[in-house]
Amino acid sequence: MSCIVLNIWRKLVKSIFVFIFMVELKKVGEFEWNVGDSGKVFASEVLVENIDSGVLEQVRNVSELLGIIGKSLAMPDMHMGYGFPIGGVAAFDLESGVISPGGVGYDINCSVRLLKTNLVEADLKGKEKEIAHSLFRSIPSGVGRGGDLKLSDSELDEVLVGGAQWAVEKGYGFEEDWKHIEDEGKLDGRSEFVSGKAKGRGRDQLGTLGAGNHFLDVLVVDEVFDLEVAKVFGLEKGQVVILIHCGSRGLGHQVASDYIEEMGKRADGLACAPINSELGKKYFGAMNAAANFAFANKQIITHLVREDLKNYFADFKADVVYDVCHNIAKIEEHAFREKIEDGRWKMEEKEVLVMRKGATRAFGPGRKEIPEDYRKVGQPVLLPGSMGTASYVLVGTKEAEKKSWGSCAHGAGRACSRSESYDKISFDEAVVDMEKRGVFVEAGKKKGMIEESPVSYKDVDEVVRVCDAVGLGKKVVRLRPILVVIG
Questions:
Q1: For 183, which DSSP code?
Q2: CB distance 72 to 63 below 8 Å
Q3: How far apart are CA 385 and CA 112, in angstroms?
Q4: How many alpha carbons fall within 13 Å on the CB side of residue 313?
Q5: For residue 382, what are the β-bridge partners?
Q6: Three-state DSSP state, 85
Q7: Averaged pLDDT, 204-233
């Protein structure tokens, strides 16, 4: 079968599949749609029209898991994932609910860190290409690529328990860094529940960027929507900032693979286990350990960025604004409406397990989980665009806590698969596109330029518009890319 015929067939099947599941969608608000009786997606008409096939089915499947509370949710950047949709959010009762590696993802704690610098855009003029190349050399990237830091068995176990705080203790940063990370960069990780194979894959990958959609962007704040909140976050127009997007590398991927295999032997359908079962507790501890590896990974990358850019700017400073998790399960306290035995409803406030896969926490003002200096305005929400397009900083809201378990979108979201990207743009066209946008790119391989090009992603401005309108997160600033480093 020729490529042309195959592509036509693929698109036809996709159209039929989408039509079948679109009949389940019922619009219940300007940007809110029910999926049958037990699912909900947040999207505009434009985003719904271009929804990728199978997402609605995955939303519905998640809603059928044991112990789910309320509806299965999907954020505006939703697209197909393994088991759960990427952009999926669901909360589960701690006694009757389940935990699933598919509800977290293979790249455990794939997340974004924002650094604010003491530079302005003019400081970079004429140095963009050189700086991009220097950062690419200083921070190892690519599939399976290791770094200069080689860990002993005991040191790796310390990382899996200590997270970003371990890295700071070893001299890779400052106490103020981890104080501005979600959960202060350290979860209750259990290294003994991480397999030897997983540890082997991560042993030399600390301080490395990886490949795929992982990146390091240097951007400038080019529009401020909320001056008060921007001031609290330390952001102002014209300021140079840095976004670091990566996760737990091979270690996290192997943790997911190990527990998907183990849970798959015992589950009928999506691999999962009761939260309070021995297997469920082991996965939760291993997942937290992998998340700590990711926190430490970004902390060391932050150190490498600081050291590299001091070669160009002697007084260079970069402070952590925030670091948010994307692929994670958290035990959190939430208020929600629950049905009681006689058919009536009552408000409950208790701890639940919230799984966010390709979604970020977006807590509103006052939550104890938010760093003290941000608590009066809400949690920073970091929403990166695709390579070459804008990224955004939003702030969490009380509305999000009511509607989405305090969750928001985590990025633009793919509009097509990586294989389909090759139908849309060539390497040469991707290079020209970046040049037209005035963005300097240092890429390890040609495939990164193609697969991560803007044509492969949804319109980030539209995704943010929906988030802002629904109240999942309110716009604070927009960031325009200057240079991009990808594996």
A1: G
A2: yes
A3: 12
A4: 18
A5: 393
A6: coil
A7: 93
Distance CA 208, CA 187 (A): 21
Region 303-310: mean pLDDT is 96
pTM of the model: 0.92
Catalytic annotation, residues: 410
Q: Which CATH fold topology does 3-486 show?
A: tRNA-splicing ligase RtcB (3.90.1860)
| DSSP per position, 242-289 | EEEEE--HHHHHHHHHHHHHHHHTT-SSS--EETTSHHHHHHHHHHHH
* Count helices and strands in the chain by DSSP H and E runs: 16, 19
Q: Which helix (H) or strand (E) holds 202?
A: helix 196-202
Mean pLDDT of the 109-127 span:
97
Q: Cα–Cα distance between 474 and 390 in angstroms, integer?
A: 16
Give the distance, in angstroms, between the CA of residue 245 and the centroid of all CA atoms in the same chain.
8
The rounded distance, in Å, linking the Cα atoms of 206 and 77 is 29
Side chain identity, residue 50: N
**C-alpha 326 chain-centroid distance:** 3
Q: How confident is the model at residue 212 (pLDDT cuts 50, 70, 90)?
A: confident
Determine the angle formed by the axes of helices 55-63 and 3-22, rounding to 10 degrees.
40
Contacts of 231 (CB under 8 A, 6+ apart): none
Q: Please, which pLDDT band fits residue 345 given cuts at 50, 70 and 90?
A: confident
Mean pLDDT over each residue of the chain, to the nearest integer: 91
**Structure tokens belonging to residue 246:** 């990566």
Residue among 471, 348, 467 at smallest CA distance from 401: 471
